[in-house]
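INTERNAL AUDIT FORM
Audit reference: QA-55
Scope: verify that the stored structure record matches its stored sequence.
Auditor: D.O.
Record contents follow.
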Amino acid sequence: MVSDLNMLSVFALVAEERSFRAAGERLGVSRSAVSQTIRRLEENLGIALISRTTRSVSLTEAGEQLYEDVAPAIADMRLALSLTEQWRDRPRGQLRLAVSSIAERFLSGPFLAGFTEANREIQLDVTVTDEEFDIVAEGYDAGVRLGEVIEQDMIAVPVAGDERQLTVCSPSYRDRFGMPAHPADLAGHRCIGWRPSPRAVPYRWEFTENGKDFSVAVAPEITTNDMALMIKLAVAGAGITFGMEESFRPFIDRGELVPILDDYCARFAGFYLYYPSRRNAVPKLRALVEYLRHWK
């Protein structure tokens, strides 16, 4: 039985060219290498496939039958390889992304709409999730996360500049309960917390004082995994909440929320698009990376 299908492809080329030398030129190998491959194939099958003379090459009856049987399959494989090579330079197909729910700039309508308009043969499949997992094992092409939680072996491309987390509340809450002077005072306030999944503990609120980072484990009266709900509750006066400045900015600008503890909220590295390897990045992913680098 022939286990090396490469021998069949060499045989098909010899059958097409009726020449060991011409077949070798198409393969980029020597005439001798082609001859040795055919000899091994014949030995494996236990029958002569090609009649050789000093001036010509012809197929035996068994060789004619084998070529007739394998030629369509080999032609199909060549076509399949040719079609696959088209993916090497052409951005197309489904691009699966796992994106943090608070990556506001990346999830903005203009960015994703502009990318799909510029790459009509790419279909985006975006999962908005705050759970941390192996994007490769789960079948994603790339992810978007804060730089501090991305593995060191990943390629990371900045989505935007530095970010900042803020503590905010509504003017009505401020007027009713006052404002904490220090993050430690949050223990005496009604808080609206966040967690990425039902199994996770509520997120610790992170601050900076005199150049040193510290966190506060507030005891939220309300906890959710939905930033939009957190904002709605804060605007309604339900309590103090904590999150990305970019998420709160429209509500702050409209006066619906006010920042508090501002002096303890330092800037840090923001969101990154990350993926496993630059060397084998497919065209659809390269297209996203290039679009991100030039998007303003």
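Auditor finding: record pair retrieved intact. The chain has three domains: 5-88, 93-161+270-294, 163-268.
Action required: none
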